[in-house]
Amino acid sequence: MTTVNALSEVAALMGDPARAAMLSLLMDGRAHTASELALTAGVTAQTASGHLARMVEASLLAARAQGRNRFYRLASSEVAHAIEALMALAGTRAPPAAKSAAWRRDPDLRFCRTCYDHLAGQVGIAVTDALTRAGHIEPMGPRDWRLTPSGELFCGRLGVDVPGARRLGSRHFARQCLDWSERRPHISGALGAAIADTFFRRGWAEKLRRSRTVRLTDSGRRALNSHFGAAV
Amino acid sequence: MTTVNALSEVAALMGDPARAAMLSLLMDGRAHTASELALTAGVTAQTASGHLARMVEASLLAARAQGRNRFYRLASSEVAHAIEALMALAGTRAPPAAKSAAWRRDPDLRFCRTCYDHLAGQVGIAVTDALTRAGHIEPMGPRDWRLTPSGELFCGRLGVDVPGARRLGSRHFARQCLDWSERRPHISGALGAAIADTFFRRGWAEKLRRSRTVRLTDSGRRALNSHFGAAV
DNA sequence: TCGATAGTTCGGTGGCGGCCGAAGGATAGC
DNA sequence: GCTATCCTTCGGCCGCCACCGAACTATCGA
């Protein structure tokens, strides 16, 4: 293959409107799910899937499976650089200010939200980090956490229903879930759900209507400080 | 027009093999006639004419009529920069085995070439590294270089027209341009062009006909050694 | 075990665009 | 004027590829 063909091939990939829309969204540096990218590009899931596979094949994107979701991100900073150079040609300034519109509109979503049934965002990460720092949980394997004896006690004092979580044998007990805004794992699985449930039950957090966004209450903020030694 | 559409449109222009071949030839920084570009791209004159018109329309190329001939050149160094960035991507895409095949095809191009109007390849990197090592230039921000007082003196002794380069207010003075073969930044912008000009004027380097490839002369090799303390 | 959700694969369709032949300027030289 | 060369415009053909519906797989939660 000549350098010329290589040039045209990579440019052609970026030259499709749907793929360009996906790449633009990914210029925020975060990982996004296939369905999110499909929605942004304005195409069906199956069309998006084909586009994403081609871009992964060409090393423009990197993919990581997580549960039912598949997260895609730009494969390297060089990809971002090339996109930026092309956008500069069109006279439009893009990165790094080019976050997705939804993103700019919703900083609260980044702060705290539900991910299935557990907490995510800065609050989810703060809780996870605090538990790790205190030695209450430990990474176990690539995808799980282990609850230590001290963690068992800690959860008991807080009112987290650990026995109930263990009873759900069909469900993973404590999983590492990649936080798509913070780009680090937070705690999910049955234990993550039980912790979130405690937050809601004790009035530390409230779900907003018709949204994944979660509001941390004042007492929740105090609880984070006193019980977890974390500030957000 | 949205930024996304702008991205896909300019990328789609570069994504056609015939147009990519033309753009590659024009990376030598010179103006070429329509028929020459048609020959390079392997298409008929009328097909090439259509391609060229579209690229002029999109401000990728600039055209100038001269007698019966029509000369085309890259519209700006930004266009060259974008092409270079895309080529850097293309270098990473295939596994090593496939890459080296394409590589060995053009060892001379990898050694020294023009990137629009400045030097690239091993020689371009050698010059840039030597200037950095001697403290003549310093990275300034993510995309620029700063010429230090010692660099000012050094360029003056060499006959590089620094004042002339500064006078081009419309153009970036000293930019970092990612070298697609060396995968590290070399110096471009007005100063990069002035340095390259010095190389050609003093007989240190010669452009090969119909190619971006540049030949380093024996005196050029000696100059690199004595003035820059670099060996290639 | 079962339903719901996320993602992929496959097959068929439609439209965009690259291609060339033919014809039509424009310029230079005679 | 005439001719050769360079380039462009026009019209029609053809292939590629983006798209979607349908069906399938995998994972999650109950």
Task: Map the helices and strands.
The structure is a homodimer of 232-residue chains.
Chain A: H1 3-14, H2 17-26, E1 32-33, H3 34-41, H4 45-57, E2 61-66, E3 69-74, H5 77-89, H6 101-105, H7 107-111, E4 113-115, E5 118-120, H8 121-133, E6 137-140, E7 144-147, H9 149-158, H10 162-167, E8 175-178, E9 185-188, H11 189-201, E10 205-207, E11 214-216, H12 218-228
Antiparallel strand pairs in A: 1-3, 2-3, 4-5, 6-7, 8-9, 10-11
Chain A binds a DNA duplex (30 and 30 nucleotides) through residues 16, 18, 33-35, 43-51, 53, 65, 67-70, 116-117, 168, 170-172.
Uncertain segments of chain A? 92-102
Please state roughly what percent of the residues of chain A sit in beta strands, choosing from under 5%, 5-15%, 15-25%, 25-35%, 35-45% or over 45%: 15-25%
* Helix segment tally of chain A: 12
Q: Summarize the biggest pleated sheet of chain A.
A: 3 strands, antiparallel
Average pLDDT of chain A:
86
- Inertia-based shape of chain A: elongated
Alpha-beta content class of chain A: alpha+beta
Evaluate the radius of gyration of chain A.
20 Å
Q: Helix coverage percent of residues of chain A? A: 40-55%
Biggest sheet strand line-up of chain A: 1-3-2
Oligomer: homodimer
- What is the number of domains of chain A? 2
Largest interface: A-B, 41 and 44 residues
Give the terminus-to-terminus CA distance of chain A. 52 Å
Give a count of the beta strands of chain A, DSSP E runs of length 2 or more.
11
Order of helices and strands of chain A: HHEHHEEHHHEEHEEHHEEHEEH
Question: Please, could you describe this protein's structure?
Answer:
The structure is a homodimer of 232-residue chains. In chain A, 51% of the residues lie in helices and 18% in strands. Chain A has 232 residues and is α+β, with helices and mostly antiparallel strands. Chain A has two domains: 98 residues, Arc Repressor Mutant, subunit A; 121 residues, no CATH class. In chain A, the strands form five sheets. A three-stranded antiparallel beta sheet of chain A has the order 1-3-2. In chain A, a hairpin with a 6-residue loop joins strand 10 and strand 11. The longest helix of chain A is centred in the N-terminal third of the chain and has 13 residues. Chain A is elongated. In chain A, 43% of the residues are buried. Chains A and B meet through helix 1, helix 2 and helix 5 of A and helix 1, helix 2, helix 5 and helix 6 of B. Chain A binds a DNA duplex (30 and 30 nucleotides) through helix 4.
